[in-house]
Amino acid sequence: MRIAVPKEHTPLDHRVAMTPQSIKRLASDDVQFVVESGAGLGASFTDDEYREAGAEIVQDPKALFEGADVVAKINSPVKREDGTDEVELIPSGALFLAQMRPHENADALKRLAERGVTSFSMELMPRTTLAQRMDCLSAFSTVAGYMAVIRGAEAGSKFFPMLTTAAGTIPPANVFIIGAGVAGLQAIATARRLGAVVEGFDIRPETKEQVESLGATFVEWEEASDDMQTEGGYAKEVSAEEEEREQQLLADHIAKSDIVVTTALVPGRPAPKLISEEMVKGMRPGSVIVDLAAETGGNCELTVKGEVVERHGVLILGQTDLAASLPVHGSLMYGRIVSVLLQHIMNDEGKIVIDLDEEITSHGYARRKCEVSAMTGTILISVYVFVLAMFVGFEVITKVPPTLHTPLMSGSNAISGISIVGALVIAGMGQGTMFDIIGMVAVIAATINVVGGFMVTDRMLQMFRRDTDTN
Ligand code: NAD
Questions:
Q1: How far apart, in whole angstroms, are the C-alpha atoms of residue 136 and residue 323?
Q2: In contact, 179 and 138? CB cutoff 8 Å
Q3: Distances from the Cα of 214 to the Cαs of 151, 185, 208, 211, 388, in angstroms?
Q4: Dist. CA 93–CA 370, nearest whole Å
Q5: Tens of pLDDT along 85-136?
Q6: Each residue of 144-191: pLDDT tens digit?
Q7: How many A from CA of 278 to the centre of ligand 1?
Q8: What CA–CA distance (Å, rounded) separates 324 from 334?
Q9: Atom of ligand 1 nearest to the CA of 137
Q10: Pairing outcome for strands 163-165 and 168-170
């Protein structure tokens, strides 16, 4: 079996999917690794270290992907700077491992599926005991939580620990962590290690014990209950009224904090807005908010995704690169995760066997999910365009004076001609019965418009002829 490890071509991401250490665990006569030259350099792994681990190093991306049975990446496929499209490079029949994020990359997934590539979304691994060693979401949340505190400390203007110096005693910084999932708990642990006084909050009551075990104080909310979490342990979205009451609870704690790290997320939903502009105004100038939820809208009303902004004297960090910001340890963790997963799905002869009824592979296996999500995406876009077209059509027909109906009909006939071509293409693509039916309906509807248009025009011309005859 041949496993290819390309260089990540995503800006600001210096991680690599497999390290020399993870390759050494698996390399054998049956399992060969081929690594793109320089793939590990951003994470300080040299080509020589990969060679020593048993990998072959190649320069040419085409040679790298050619004949690969497995391609391991961190990020979904991209178009490279030289114009090559990774989707096209991954060989048909290969297994592609990466954080695919099916909902954001429906098109790439669909194209991979069409080419016979099996995509496995690493971030969809179940959060169970068995899958814990293959959970890259937790690994990268750990990096993000740690880095949030480090960036907050750097952007802030105070020491974290209490210091007794000849120049006087310096009190410790106050740090408040909102959201006590994997990232939040790591942020609490990091801030505590640096010596700050830390408070933690979450709407899931079970987190109280976890927060306190790390030496932080848990902010209690009497409304928090087990109903606020799903069976899988994730938070549910709170209502607008609950969100407002939560803000009132948090306001005082935020006002007295030097650094606030927000990590509150609800899977599949925009991040809850927990810090309003008024609350930012209530903070001391020089305070810092690190918003780890910036990617999905931010927990603070004033967060700007990907940027650091200053509002009312408070620095708000909305950078989204935190999970990718410790390339050495990020790569070591991910490489180990990939090698454990490969061991899990490899049989004794070193061949990949995917069992769709099995707990781990059934979650990450993205081909079916991609087909569903790509199809849903396409249908949604088509319905959106259809509704817009109906609205524009209605407005045009009702607003145009009757004298202009004939030229208008010529225009709509031309558009219907284009629609027929498009509908024939859709009907002939063989994407499934639903697409065939929609395509055929569109062909019939557009044809009625064209034929009807000709009939009405012909009738009008005849009326015109009669008038001429009479004259
Ligand atoms: P996440 O990233 O989805 O959310 C982060 C935190 O935000 C969560 O703790 C959530 O409760 C909190 N949150 C959401 N809305 C909030 C609000 N309005 N106010 C305050 N906080 C809010 O969570 P995660 O880090 O992915 O963890 C989710 C769950 O999965 C946790 O229960 C965690 O223990 C569990 N988990 C289990 C495993 C495993 O068993 N292998 C591995 C990792 C995580």
A1: 11
A2: no
A3: 20, 8, 10, 5, 54
A4: 16
A5: 999 999 999 999 999 988 889 999 999 999 999 999 999 888 888 889 999 9
A6: 999 999 999 999 999 999 999 999 999 999 999 999 999 999 999 999
A7: 27
A8: 11
A9: 26
A10: antiparallel
Tell me the per-residue pLDDT of 30-85, one tens digit each, with 9 for 90 and over. 999 999 999 999 999 999 999 999 999 999 999 999 999 999 999 999 999 999 99
**Minimal-distance CA residue to ligand 1 atom 16:** 264
Output the pLDDT for position 183.
98
Cα 355 to middle of ligand 1, angstroms: 28
Angle, to 10 degrees, between the axis of helix 182-193 and the axis of helix 136-155?
A: 40
Best mutation site among 178, 202, 262 for ligand 1 pocket (most ligand atoms within 8 Å of CB) = 202
112-141 in b/e form (b: 16+ CB < 10 A) is bbeeebbbbbbebbbeeeebeebbbbbbbb
Q: How far, in Å, from the CA of 181 to the mean position of ligand 1?
A: 4
Q: How far apart are CA 385 and CA 392, in angstroms?
A: 10
Ligand 1 atom 24, closest CA: 181
Give the residue from 247, 340, 341 showing the smallest Cα distance to 299: 247
pTM: 0.78
Summarised one tens digit per residue, pLDDT across range 285-329 is 999 999 999 999 999 999 999 999 999 999 999 999 999 999 999
What pLDDT is recorded for position 371?
47
- Sequence-separated (6 or more) residues with CB below 8 Å from residue 132: 138
Q: 318 CA to middle of ligand 1, Å?
A: 20
- CA dist., res. 56 & res. 1, Å (int): 13
The two tokens of residue 158 are: 């105070």
Task: For residue 273, give the 3-state DSSP assignment.
Answer: coil
Answer for the pair 228, 238: CB distance below 8 angstroms, yes or no: yes
Question: Which of 162, 192, 163 shows the shortest CA–CA distance to 175?
Answer: 192
CA-proximal residue: ligand 1, atom 27 (nearest): 181
Tokens 């899958």 belong to 131
Quickly state the pLDDT bin for 469 (edges 50, 70, 90). low
Catalytic residues: 127, 132, 135, 138, 234
